Amino acid sequence: MLGLVLDFVSCLRAGDVRVSTAEVLDCVQQLGLIDPLIEDEFRTTLKANFVKSRREQPKFDRLYNLFFHDLGSTEENQADVSPLDFVRALKEAQPLGEIQAAIMDFLSGNPIELLEILQRIQTEQATPRLRFNLGPLGDRLEIMVALNNTRDLVLRSPEAQGKESLINNRLERAFRLLLDEPLPENDGIKRLQPHEKRHKTLGERSFGTLTDKEVLEMREVIAQLVRKLKDIVGRRYAVMERGELDVKKTLRLAQRYQGVPIDIRYHHHPKRKARIVTLCDVSSSVWSAARFMLNVLYSLQECFAEVRSFIFVAGVAEVTRIFKENDINQAIDKVLKEADLEYNAPTDYGQTLKVFRSSYLDILDKRTTLIVIGDARSNYLHPQELILGEMRQRCRRVIWINPEPQNLWYTGDSEMRAYEPYCHELRAIRTLNQLMEFVEELVL
Fold this sequence. Notes:
The chain is α/β, with parallel strands linked by helices and about 450 residues long. The chain has two domains: about 1-180, no CATH class; about 190-225 and about 270-444, 3-Layer(aba) Sandwich (Rossmann fold), CATH 3.40.50. The chain has 19 helices and nine strands.
């Protein structure tokens, strides 16, 4: 039993489900309290120990079915020797590449090597030097070719006679692992389309349609709204400095004097200000909306503990210093001139996330709200959505702001469907009214 559990744990780890040694020890101890032959009890015990959140449940279910059902059958379990043991001998008889060797192991009942390869191509683009419009599928072509070659190699073996159905079934399961990736559950995601109100003329105009004169008017309106928000936030934090009324302590002290006079006591635990990190697409389709978003956030800097901004096209550049050292409107103009970015490169969200993870991931913590501003159009390149999932685990919230109409989010080269499960909140923001409603919720 212990060996079986350890093999399954290895399978979970290869499939990107984190399992600690302490969790394995607890699980083994609890398995001694149940009848492992009752599958519902056995499965529930494993799941209770190894799954830390609802987002990991689909991975666990898929790997459990693969390990305990898909790679075994009644016929195999009754036999002293697995019917596909000849595959191991076939693997050792000739030199094979890493992928084909992993497929051979999969056929013989060991999925770990193939799972590790699949996990690697999901988290890192296997061929970064190649940039073509097949996107994530491009990295899987080599595995698909290896699966077909392995099928031909194994079926040509004399020992494969009579076992063609089992071989094809296992290869079909390997194909499903490659092509079918269940996304994590994210039923709690907020999809918001704020009601357009307040400014009936300018506030309802899309950012991309504003004239130069209207942009100046927009800046004046934003300045008025920002001053109003600052006043509200200032009063709120003044109250927090004093603290909230501590009813229990006040009544307890009042008993000494039969309630006269009352010595009012307060809780002295003011809320901490949030930290904001913005990751902003500066391609032409997004920049008209993003510049207003950055304008408002930096005008409200004292309402947050810290605001750090990054812009990207196919790489990342931090522009926090530019905003701090210049007037907001001058800073926005400088961003497009001084930032170390190749603006003419095709937008690549996957490469952006990889660079951010390698250089800036440590700035994210449980006080941080990560705001991604972009249309998620990545020119069919690898979206690297699992990196966004890793960033989500470190953040308090991940909010994605898309300046496109929502009916266009899942069309063409948009990767919104891939990024959606890793966000806490999705918003379509195309007008001033929508922007200010979002900022009020963020600040207040």
